[in-house]
């Protein structure tokens, strides 16, 4: 049997006295496309950050392809949830994508090399915005901006792509383009995506996790009204495609 891409065992994470995650166990297989849903404050971002080794576990453990999380050399690309951007900040698309190549412990004299530029252009090509390389980020649409962030994550040549609400503030047509791109990338990469978009989650992913401090569900991407009440504490309008296959 192959090693799990991400193995989470009895994970808990606290911020001071605030318990954000409690006893979460999850085995994410290589090649999986996992969607994570849950209410605001349910611990979704915290789970992603713990997997990335950005915050410590208070209890339990996480391993990535058999290695303890947080060790150097683990191939994960991260598309963070960006809620506010200062549009006046003068930076081009290529410059943002290149920041994905930055490593820890850089000298002040560091300059990006030819290989960094090649990787950045390759990533831009992959997400379909190479032609925007020299454009200022302030002049991008919401969908183009998200593609740029995905390109940035791809420059580390990840085996696992982790995305936190990649379609927040993106219109319907750009959303569907981003989901097509993710489907394509999933042919080569394991994907873990947090989303509030229930239609996307039920339609796009291969596995679904429902998180509200505890892991309430992990399995086939089917949504039920019972599950929604359990997760959100009230009935939720399910997408039309889901209503047709309620279980
Ligand atoms: N840096 C922090 N310091 C203290 N508490 C935090 C910190 N980050 C998150 N929390 C708390 O941890 C809990 C989980 O937050 P988290 O951001 O992981 O939830 P989420 O499910 O991603 O929420 P959302 O859907 O709103 O993005 C919340 O109660 C939040 O207030």
From TrEMBL:
Pfam families per record: ABC_tran
Q: Which domain of life is it from?
A: Bacteria
Give one GO term, molecular function aspect: ATP hydrolysis activity
* InterPro entries the UniProt entry points to: AAA+_ATPase, ABC_transporter-like_ATP-bd, ABC_transporter-like_CS, Metal_Ion_Import_ABC, P-loop_NTPase
Query: Looking at the keywords, is Nucleotide-binding present?
Result: yes
Question: Which SUPFAM superfamilies does the UniProt entry name for this protein?
Answer: P-loop containing nucleoside triphosphate hydrolases
Looking at the record, the residues that make up the ABC transporter domain are 6-238
Keyword Transport listed: yes
Per UniProt, the keywords (alphabetical) are: ATP-binding, Nucleotide-binding, Transport
According to the UniProt entry, the coiled-coil residues are: none
Family, per the entry? Answer: Belongs to the ABC transporter superfamily.
* Name of this protein: ABC transporter ATP-binding protein
Classification from the root reads:
Bacteria, Bacillati, Bacillota, Clostridia, Peptostreptococcales
């Amino acid at each position: 049997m192959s090693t799990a891409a991400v193995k989470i065992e009895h994970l808990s994470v606290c911020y001071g006295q605030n318990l954000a995650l409690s006893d979460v166990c999850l085995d994410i297989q290589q090649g999986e496309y996992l969607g994570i849903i849950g209410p605001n404050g349910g611990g979704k971002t915290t789970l992603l950050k713990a997997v990335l080794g950005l915050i410590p576990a208070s209890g339990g453990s996480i391993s990535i392809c058999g290695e303890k999380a947080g060790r150097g050399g683990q191939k994960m690309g991260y598309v963070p949830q960006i809620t506010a951007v200062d549009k006046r900040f003068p930076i081009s698309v290529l410059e943002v994508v290149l920041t994905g190549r930055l490593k820890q412990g850089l000298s002040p004299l560091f300059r990006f090399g030819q290989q960094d530029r090649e990787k950045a252009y390759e990533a831009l090509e992959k997400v379909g915005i190479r032609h925007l390389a020299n454009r200022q980020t302030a002049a991008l649409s919401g969908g183009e901006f998200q593609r740029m962030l995905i390109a940035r994550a791809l420059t580390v040549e990840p085996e696992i792509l982790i995305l936190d609400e990649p379609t927040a503030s993106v219109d319907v047509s750009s959303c569907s383009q981003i989901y097509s791109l993710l489907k394509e990338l999933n042919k080569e990469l394991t994907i873990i995506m947090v989303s509030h978009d229930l239609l996307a989650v039920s339609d796009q992913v291969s596995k679904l996790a429902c998180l509200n401090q505890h892991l309430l569900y992990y399995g086939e991407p089917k949504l039920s009204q019972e599950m929604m009440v359990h997760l959100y504490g009230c009935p939720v309008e399910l997408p039309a495609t889901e209503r047709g296959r309620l279980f």
